[in-house]
């Protein structure tokens, strides 16, 4: 996957990856390619596995902002399932 991302980094302004299964930060890899990242790292969910983790990378010229806590509260109040808040909008 890394080779594909490197070969296509000038083609796409935004990437969204799921099931990364990695607890490391990717800041230097994506930063070198001209992206800022918003990473929801994998976490241990049981003795047998992890939540896969997600990563959104967007070109540094793109505007992103933090999602206000009040917005999360509204979403959580109407969601029939628990919401796992990630760091979307926070540069890491």
Q: Tally the structural domains.
A: 1
Order of helices and strands: HEHEEEEH
The total of helices stands at 3
- Strand fraction band? 25-35%
Integer average pLDDT: 78
Structural class: alpha+beta
The rounded Rg comes to 15 Å
Give the fraction of residues assigned to helices: 25-40%
Shape: flat
Biggest β-sheet: strands ordered side by side in the sheet: 1-5-2
Give the biggest sheet.
3 strands, antiparallel
Number of strands: 5
Oligomeric composition of the shown chains = single chain
Uncertain spans, ≥5 residues at pLDDT below 50? 88-92
Structure, described:
This protein is α+β, with helices and mostly antiparallel strands and 92 residues long. The protein has one domain. It starts with a helix and ends in a 14-residue tail after the last helix.
Tags for this model:
three-stranded antiparallel sheet; alpha+beta; 3 helices; disordered C terminus; single chain; 92 residues; two-stranded antiparallel ribbon
Layout of helices and strands, plus pairs?
Layout: H1 2-8, E1 14-18, H2 27-32, E2 35-40, E3 43-46, E4 49-51, E5 54-59, H3 69-78
Antiparallel strand pairs: 1-5, 2-5, 3-4
In brief, what are we looking at here?
The chain has 92 residues and is an alpha+beta fold. The protein has 3 helices and 5 strands, in the order αβαββββα.
